[in-house]
Structures are given as C-alpha cells and as structure tokens.
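Local shape tokens

___
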Amino acid sequence: MRYLGLPLRAAWAGHIHSSGQPMEVTMSSGNAGTAGGGAIYSLGIFGAFVYYFQQADSFWQYVLSFIQGLFWPAWMVYEVFAALGA
C-alpha cells in the first residue's frame, strides 16, 4: 500500500532515510517514564484548581485560586523546608 508515493508504513512513521527507505524508530529506555510523571503532575495541578476554587468566595479569590493552583508545588516545597528549618 502506498501513500503519496511512499510505502504506507513510512508515511505513517514520518521517518524516511535519504535513500528513500523507511527508518526503524525505537524508543530509548531513558525516556520511558517521563509521560507518567507529567500526567500525575497535571492531575495535581487540576486537583489544586478544584480545591482552591471551592475555597473562594469573591471574584479576586477566584482569580487567586488559579494562581495558587499553578504555583502550589513551589509553596509546598517552601513550607516543607520551613518546617524542616532549612
């Protein structure tokens, strides 16, 4: 099967060698866990948005809730270091 003059497999993969042959694409083992960490971090930020948004009572508190949701990891690390006395 061909797509735009290229074998379908090569067109789908998007990696064509200068000779016109499709290149094999492999995943390196060094990047295998990065997507999972980003998903967990994103869920944490979303959860922080929900938590701070529920605590807000006025317009400016709603605005502040989004800022707090974005920067909660920095505040958390600061509070941990303050508690440890570092």
About this structure: Helices lie at 8-13, 34-55, 59-84.
